[in-house]
Amino acid sequence: MSLTxxxxxxxxxxxxxxxxxxxxxxxxxxxxxxxxxxxxxxxNLIPLLSQKYHVVAxxxxxxxxxxxxxxxxxxxxxxxxxTTIEAFLDALNIKKxxxxxxxxxxxxxxxxxxxxxxxxxxxxxxxxxxxDEGLGEFWDPVRALWKENSATNRETVRAGILTLEATLWxxxxxxxxxxxxEAPYLDWALLSRPGNQEIQxxxxxxxxxxxxxxPEFQAYFRSSKVPVLxxxxxxxxxxxxxxxxxxxxxxxxxxxxxxxxGHFAVETNGKEIASLILGFLEENxx
Length: 286
Prior knowledge:
Elements: E1 5-11, E2 14-21, E3 28-32, H1 45-49, E4 54-58, H2 78-91, E5 97-101, H3 105-115, E6 120-125, H4 140-147, H5 151-161, H6 164-172, H7 182-191, H8 196-206, H9 208-224, E7 228-233, H10 242-245, H11 247-250, E8 255-259, H12 265-268, H13 270-283
Parallel strand pairs: 3-4, 3-5, 5-6, 6-7, 7-8
Antiparallel strand pairs: 1-2, 2-4
Helix pairs in contact: 2-3, 3-9, 4-5, 6-7
């Protein structure tokens, strides 16, 4: 089992923080985190995958320990998150990869797939949504924000989602096993940095552009026939489990595994997920 290295690299005018393990000569697995976490959520998964694969997990802008200079005037949109991760891949000279998509990591990776369809060898979607069927009632106040980016609607989202209680709920709801108690507190500490909540509100507002792209993501699935493993915490109230089953509409050979877990299934079912990933990639000769 290889040790996980903590690294930083200049990409897209940012200093991108990332975790890396495994032989650089092995096939690459890119792990993309979601809201409100960072590459920290993969700290236990990385060693399990790196026995056979070169695993890299960056912190996206606005999350974790990636540094965004004020002079960069960075606009926090999903298009720009994808551009930054593409620059990160280029900085590491990664040409082909399998990608683990979770939460915000899903639209980020799928935007990259639209730009570089030949680069993506396989997709592991853990509560990483690309279908209307996967959007739960959690999104109702965000949908109101999409209609009107007003101070009132921003405050509603802030009060309902950008709190310690809401962060804890994302880890706790639907979880059938214990998770590391420090994980949500780290997420909350980083969300609470000066100016970060406005960044998060901007990303919630911009998430509508991902929903608009769902038909393009789905067309990419049909044209590429990319292998997909949908391993889903079925108790998740943010991205509902019908979103996992929906992949079969465009990719009938999708492997779907519904876990008795919540949104952060990787925190509670990491060993099971790792076993499913290794078997899936071996089956697809990656």
